[in-house]
């Protein structure tokens, strides 16, 4: 039986008026418990605000825990190229193309890393890990809760934000749907860390979706595989060194499986990464194009198709790839991973040129060094990767977090203001944590001063961020001292 299809003709009904319980009246309400929300809540609380964070699932972590998007991508620039590795070296199953570099993100990210390492739930970034961070999603959930507890943030789980209260373009609070009935959280400032810009859009902010033809990057259902025998797989790689490059490959085996009618893989290779556990992998090889993560009918179709792809891929690995004979799927994402939906139109729109030229801004509040990384929106078997110059890192200005024509609300994470191309760089977890921390600090300062976020002096936001350990670049750090 197919899933429910989108109605051909939309019939509308009027819902009855209702009342809601006021759950709290904080200075700042943060909606979304992913990296941007964790960063925002921590930043706002450490800037002296009373903060409530709201999350729709029963745990924190966002795509890393909901959709198993791992490892954490690098937040280091690259000052020289990676050294060549021989086939006889231990198989790392982590990126091998990132040379030594310096970190460009600090603050809440480093606090979270310390909590993960204390739990043995992550591997510290180094040249050996390609400056990525393999992590355990269950450790991440616990570490995120501890981080909020340490910062003094109150939070509410199992609460879905469905709208805002207040006047058009001047939201005054957030409407929550819960098993206890509707709740409202009025606040001086809202931080939209939903990833999709849900509340900014509800408040009347403009936004863009996708590239010029409105197509967005495809979705991916990631899954963890247990009982992987690394030494057997390494034997295959030694015998076929042209068939595996770092974290992806198996081209010949894929073609054999395709020819036998066993595999209809929507990408050119199989991609998987190591985790902190020796006999475990995280597989990133399903791909569903032509769907949008803010459309429930598209999401339903994508979940169904991606799970069918996952079963095919796992059969292929078990039947054809040495080291996977006894392997099995131990966990798949609670939901499919969504790369791109709305990008809110802000006071400034970050561009690919800004990213690739390592542009600096006077109102910098976060930095990034991750490349432009676009999975083909049309579903082709290719990924566009464009790196920054050697030693490069780009600034993200405060203006990217401030929606045009909407007051009392900031955005953080992948829905900040940028082009389709720039978004493909700043969408990753470390940068989302950084823009989240900046949005939280700005929200706290605006709430205390009784002003709109756009009226804040960037120097004040930067000063507080530097005090919280954020990395805003050497020149600015020297100026702030």
Task: Please supply descriptive tags for the structure shown above.
single chain; 481 residues; alpha/beta; six-stranded antiparallel sheet; five-stranded parallel sheet; 13 helices; 21 strands
Molecular structure report:
The termini are far apart. A six-stranded antiparallel sheet has the order 11-12-13-14-10-15, with helices on one face. It has helices spanning 35-46, 63-66, 108-118, 137-151, 198-202, 230-239, 251-259, 296-320, 352-356, 420-426, 429-449, 458-467, 474-480; strands at residues 21-22, 28-31, 51-54, 154-156, 160-167, 170-177, 183-186, 189-192, 207-209, 223-226, 244-245, 248-249, 270-274, 280-283, 328-332, 342-344, 364-368, 372-375, 383-386, 394-397, 409-411. The protein contains 13 helices and 21 strands. The chain has 481 residues and is of the alpha/beta class. The longest helix has 25 residues, at 296-320. Helix 1 runs parallel beside helix 4 (137-151) and helix 11 (429-449) packs across helix 12.
Short description:
With about 475 residues, this protein is of the alpha/beta class. It contains 13 helices and 21 strands. A hairpin with a 7-residue loop joins β18 (about 370-375) and β19 (about 385).
SSE map:
Layout (H helix, E strand, L loop, with lengths): L20 E2 L5 E4 L3 H12 L4 E4 L8 H4 L41 H11 L18 H15 L2 E3 L3 E8 L2 E8 L5 E4 L2 E4 L5 H5 L4 E3 L13 E4 L3 H10 L4 E2 L2 E2 L1 H9 L10 E5 L5 E4 L12 H25 L7 E5 L9 E3 L7 H5 L7 E5 L3 E4 L7 E4 L7 E4 L11 E3 L8 H7 L2 H21 L8 H10 L6 H7 L1
Parallel strand pairs: 1-7, 2-3, 2-8, 3-4, 8-21
Antiparallel strand pairs: 5-6, 6-7, 9-16, 10-14, 10-15, 11-12, 12-13, 13-14, 17-20, 18-19
